[in-house]
């Protein structure tokens, strides 16, 4: 594995899950593995979990993490090839990426979508510019279209909480939000859940179809009540429209899960990547109740990142 930017195959996913679970038992077992290696964590957008968990993961392997909050501390980046840079942008991404590639053994990048330029977002333009010009392994810390470290942590959390269930029914449900939100978490979750062999149903209001490249192998059921029936895990996420790109078509609060939504799924556990808008996306009742796995998912972000870094620096 050179880069970690998406789901590759089930055998690699299983290896990473297994390694992460071993690190969860003994996080320092490979404390010397990364000695002398540096990972640069480049944030073009805000973060709490990804920033802290990636640093901790690197330190657990003896690596040195360096955080650069490019959006606040770096020069304004120009993304367009051939641009005449006589306005606000100061440094071209290809120069910045090449420089960072000489400073670090691994580069980890967070680059959200524009939600206005669909073509650029779909081709994961910013992440791929780093891949093209940095010439070192690249880890996605959430790109325009995927959030694979989150999904790996989610798969670990599902495995840990599946007990005797062989093929859990997993439901990805759209939830309301006040803002236009990226598709990355939902796309990646679908890609990994199907890739790992789970029985995935996706439910959302009309007009919220995700990019079909990520939903192959999933059942789409627009009736949330039907979708939730017999669910073992319910993953809650808002996303903006994909076809009518970046637009908000619904804020229907009946899509926000409360205890009454679980009439036909009494054992279901509820997941969310966080940060969550309480009582907009998900009720206090669920988040603070026994169904919630959100803190476990966040904790598993450390071991997911550690397994990935470990595999990349071998
Ligand atoms: N990294 C985890 C999620 C990041 C992003 N959330 C947000 O932008 C929340 C913004 C807000 O609630 O104002 C998303 O859902 O894709
Ligand atoms: N879930 C997640 O990626 O959280 P942050 O955006 O805080 O890193």
TrEMBL record:
Pathway assignment: Amino-acid biosynthesis; L-arginine biosynthesis
Domain Aspartate/ornithine carbamoyltransferase Asp/Orn-binding intervals: 185-310
The enzyme's E.C. designation: 2.1.3.11
Highest taxon of source: Bacteria
Catalytic activity: N(2)-succinyl-L-ornithine + carbamoyl phosphate = N(2)-succinyl-L-citrulline + phosphate + H(+)
Annotated binding of N(2)-succinyl-L-ornithine, by residue: 142, 177, 237, 277
Domain Aspartate/ornithine carbamoyltransferase carbamoyl-P binding: 2-160
Enzyme class: transferase
Keyword Transferase listed: yes
Binding site for carbamoyl phosphate: 47-50, 75, 110, 147-150, 273-274, 301
Pfam families on file: OTCace (PF00185), OTCace_N (PF02729)
UniProt signal peptide: none
UniProt-recorded Gene Ontology molecular function terms: amino acid binding; ornithine carbamoyltransferase activity
One biological process term in Gene Ontology: citrulline biosynthetic process
Alphabetic keyword roster: Amino-acid biosynthesis, Arginine biosynthesis, Transferase
Record-stated family: Belongs to the aspartate/ornithine carbamoyltransferase superfamily. SOTCase family.
Oligomer and partners: Homotrimer.
HAMAP family (alphabetical): SOTCase (MF_02235)
Function (record text): Catalyzes the transfer of the carbamoyl group from carbamoyl phosphate to the delta-amino group of N(2)-succinyl-L-ornithine to produce N(2)-succinyl-L-citrulline. Is essential for arginine biosynthesis.
Protein name listed in UniProt: N-succinylornithine carbamoyltransferase
Organism lineage string: Bacteria, Pseudomonadati, Bacteroidota, Cytophagia, Cytophagales
The encoding gene: argF'
